[in-house]
Design brief:
By secondary structure, this protein is an alpha+beta fold. It contains 16 helices and 14 strands. The strands form three sheets. Strands 2-3-1-4-5 form a five-stranded mixed β-sheet, with helices on both faces. Strands 12-11-10-13-14 form a five-stranded antiparallel β-sheet. A hairpin with a 2-residue loop joins β13 and β14. Bound molecules: adenosine-5'-diphosphate and magnesium ion (MG).
Length: 422
């Protein structure tokens, strides 16, 4: 007989690596508390807790306590990024997102991969740096190997207007719309040490922003020309059924291919045609003041996916399986639609989509109602109010609070209807 009692309770610690945000972390912490203990089929009771991580020197062999980390820093702050890599490699810590592929395969690689899959990425060129790179070998290399090129010829091939934007992208930094040769020369001169793409413009009817968290996807009607609080319209079914299917599929396919599990994808849509333009966002916007109506879904999805990964012991998928996608892409016996469905099947295999939803139904049947109550509680009101106070000037507090409260009331009404509650 063994003298060690069987493990009956396990506590899983989730780490939050945060920057300036207060809204969604508070929401996450409060919703995580609503999950309650989960008893898995083997009789073990799982408890989930979270902690905000701090940044400090670390011994590379130091044990890591967190089993899962939601990271909002690694795309710009290298110390925590390297800690995340250590945690993934030495401790199997589950990461949303993988710093490895976000560092090595940014927007440019994502363009290439989706072109390879046969998707409608707009025509895009990469041009050499405007200013020399800071390296003693530059002069020799440049004189011998850098071929002179005519920027205007490339622009003419793409046609005006076109977009010039950094190959790695993010937050509209360095993005410009180029209407003519004058703009072209000025934007290239200004690009300095940024490496730039030139991309043809898509004339679109809808800008679809798909936020995917694990196997969950929300397709939102995004209006980039609007001020922040009005960018996400609450509209369901704004895309044709075919475009809606493609947008949701592409978002999950990208994530599964690159191992990104909390990422937003921007696609420009005309009729049934979907043009992906930006889908490597390591730190997607989930602010309550921009997502409003969609905020409860987003935080619930983060909590649900984290709980699923930890309780089922899902292993962080460190290796990529891009070859499987390319093998489908290279077949000539499949239509575009059949290929998309085949990629999506791989993505859903990666995310264990079917098992995930069955698990949520079995282990978190109470969560939808608990979140609905929480959104109507004083705690949520306080969170919204304090976010508005820190986001907008004093004379605008009342108007913005009323604006967001209206949108949240709309969500509450729709959610009650969805859940069949009077
Ligand atoms: N090819 C394009 N056609 C039309 N609009 C574009 C195109 N590329 C970028 N834009 C516009 O520029 C914005 C910023 O470009 P994006 O590629 O999303 O850069 P970032 O990674 O900085 O968000 C987009 O949200 C869109 O409004
Ligand atoms: Mg973008």
């Amino acid at each position: 007989m063994s003298d060690t009692a069987p493990v009956t309770t396990r506590t899983h610690l989730i780490g939050l690596l945060l920057g300036a945000e207060e809204d969604w972390p508070q929401a996450f912490e409060q919703l995580l508390a609503l999950v309650g203990p989960i008893t898995s089929d083997d009789g073990v009771t799982h408890e989930l807790t979270s902690e905000r991580l701090t940044i400090e020197p670390f011994d590379l062999r130091q044990p890591v306590r967190t089993e899962l980390v939601i990271d909002r820093l690694a795309h710009w702050y290298y110390h925590p990024r390297e800690w995340l890599k250590k945690a993934a490699l030495m401790n199997d810590t589950y990461l949303l997102n993988s710093p490895f592929t976000f560092q090595s395969m940014e927007k440019h690689s994502a363009y290439c991969a989706l072109m390879r899959l046969g998707l409608k990425v707009p025509d895009t060129w990469l041009v050499p740096y405007k200013n020399p790179v800071d390296n003693v070998r530059w002069a020799y290399t440049s004189a011998k190997y850098n071929r002179p090129f005519d920027l205007k010829t490339i622009a003419n091939r793409l046609g005006y207007p076109l977009y010039m934007k950094p190959f790695d992208g993010g937050g509209w930094r360095g993005v410009s719309r180029i209407n003519d040769e004058h703009d072209l020369v000025r934007a290239y001169d200004d690009s300095g040490e940024m490496l730039m793409h030139l991309q043809s413009t898509v004339d679109y009817e809808h800008f679809a922003r798909a936020l995917s968290i694990g196997p969950e996807t929300m397709v939102m009607d995004f209006r980039p020309e609007q001020p922040m609080h009005n960018r996400y319209a609450v509209s369901h079914g704004f895309l044709s059924p075919s475009a809606g299917h493609q947008v949701a599929a592409i978002s999950r396919i990208v994530n599964a291919m690159f191992g990104w599990e909390f990422n937003s994808a921007e696609m420009l849509v005309t009729g049934d045609d979907v043009y992906p333009i930006d889908y490597a966002n390591a730190c997607p916007d989930v602010a309550v003041t921009s997502l409003h109506y969609y905020f409860p879904w987003a935080i619930k999805a983060l909590v649900r996916w984290s709980a699923y990964c930890l309780v089922t012991g899902r292993r962080p998928p460190l290796d990529l399986t891009m070859r499987r996608y390319f093998d489908i892409a290279d077949r000539d016996d499949l239509s575009e639609a059949a290929k998309l469905d085949a990629y999506l099947a791989l993505a859903d295999e990666y995310f264990e989509t079917e098992a995930y939803w069955a698990w949520c139904e079995h282990h978190l049947p109470h969560l939808d109602r608990a979140v609905l109550e929480w959104v109507q509680s004083e705690a949520f009101h306080h969170l919204l109010n304090s976010t508005v106070v820190t986001t907008y000037p004093a004379h605008e507090h009342d108007v913005f609070l009323a604006h967001f409260e209206g949108l949240i009331r709309l969500w509450v009404a729709d959610e009650k209807q969805r859940l069949g509650i009077e």
